[in-house]
Amino acid sequence: MNRYFYYSILMCMLVNTIIYVPNILFAHRHNSALTGMLLSVVIGSCLAVIFSKAMMNKQGQGLPELLTQHLPLWIKGVVLIYLGFMWFAAGSIVLIVYSIILKRFIIEDINLEVLIILLMSVVVWSASKPTKTILYLLEIVMVINVPLVSIILFKALSSKYMNWYGIWNIASDNVMKLPNLDVVAAATYLFTGYINQAIFNREFDGRFCPKHLWAIPFLGLTILSTTFFIPIGFHGTEGVGHFVYPWVSTADSLRMEFGFVERVVYLFLLLYLSLTLIFVTVTWHVGYRLIESISQKQFPIRSWSLKPIVVFGSFMLITIFLAYFLNEKQHLILGTYWLRLRFWSELGLVLYVYYLSRKGKTT
């Protein structure tokens, strides 16, 4: 069962390339990107290890059960609603961004809101399934996609068009500069997959004991480096800042002469369609389970069976509202603010959960 813990982390690491993490890193490429990335590897890895150790002390229990033991009901309800919508926001941002990418590069004639509704229908259907089903689906997607994504990365690194001098120029120019908060908040998002253990831990009754935690900083540094340096190698130190979706443009620069699809961008978008759907499925499932854990007395609905409709319906309506009324620049600004809020919220949640786990262990 421990492999699902790493699947969740790896899923979040891979999906970062299509959201606004690369944009934020490239915006600070001349001042603090590298030091911020190195600091984020340390912070993200430490938070992942601390949270996993805390959940190991609470085998078979999720975050709602842990909060029930230590918080009043009304505070627990407020915290779970806030965290549930934070998880929802994570999936919603990815869903909107990928829908825009699909419309721009693949199916230009479709209405954006219609495309989002179609994708959300698939997500809601799968996210409402039992947690065990979500974990099995996550494993299938990761086993299929990780080797193919690795081939794309290898193809990029071995390309004759890779400008290693530009990469060295950026790396050497950033060594002695202080990290920026936006860079740290964005780069630590790669490690956030471990936080799904807040619900997944319920399924790991007595069997959650992850080994080889040293692999988390290694994987994080590797993927973060490729996310940042490969587009710079293809588009140059200045040109990379002119792309709204730098990784899609980078994939479109690659060719597979002997592949069944010559243009890598189509394979890239197909892979990230499945990664996007499983990422949004997992985040919306976790968000739903957190809100579902509020007791019936705290939830202002007479019929408790309507709760999935209310929760997922709210998720869908807010997502459509954001897609319809905000443009791409506003989405980037909103995503940057959300990454900051997520960073501090995640930091506080991890430290508090670790405190509660130690408190329960000593008493």
TrEMBL record:
Segments spanning the bilayer are 6-26, 33-54, 74-98, 110-128, 134-154, 212-234, 264-288, 309-326, 338-357
Pfam families xref list: Spore_permease (PF03845)
The protein depicted here goes by the name: Spore germination protein
Q: Which key words are in the record? A: Membrane, Transmembrane, Transmembrane helix
Species this chain originates from: Gordoniibacillus kamchatkensis
InterPro entries named among the record's database cross-references? Spore_GerAB (IPR004761)
On the tree of life, the source organism's domain of life is Bacteria
